[in-house]
Amino acid sequence: MRPEEISEVLAALSMVEQDEDLPKNIKSKVKQAICILNDDQKNMGLRVDSSIEHLGDVVDDPNLPPHNRMQLWSVVSQLESQ
């Protein structure tokens, strides 16, 4: 992924994380995905795959508000298209 694509994904994830209606457990997983994507010590492919795995767990959570679910599906789609 190009750096500008990662920046877009990180911005979208930050918006989701800052949503005050988001349950804490989901907010924590989104924060983990952000940290994974920011970890320059690991290969980009590994970072993308790990963050998709974390976000995949989140989008299946029944407590996730529908508007956040759509935002996260969009992010996952961006990550998968790398």
Helix proportion: over 70%
Biggest sheet, open or closed, and with what strands and sense? none
Terminal Cα span: 5 Å
CATH superfamily: Ta0600-like
Textual characterization of the structure:
The chain is mainly α and 82 residues long. It has one domain (3-80): Up-down Bundle (de novo design (two linked rop proteins)), CATH 1.20.1440.50. 74% of the residues lie in helices and 0% in strands. It has four helices and no strands. It has helices at residues 3-17, 24-38, 44-59, 66-80. Helix 1 runs antiparallel to helix 4 (66-80), helix 2 runs antiparallel to helix 3 (44-59) and helix 3 runs antiparallel to helix 4 (66-80). The mean pLDDT is 93.
Keywords summarizing the entry:
de novo design (two linked rop proteins); 4 helices; 0% strand; 82 residues
List the helices and strands and how they pair.
Layout: H1 3-17, H2 24-38, H3 44-59, H4 66-80
Helix pairs in contact: 1-2, 1-4, 2-3, 3-4
Structure in a nutshell:
With 82 residues, the chain is an all-alpha fold. The protein has helices at 3-17, 24-38, 44-59, 66-80. The protein is globular.
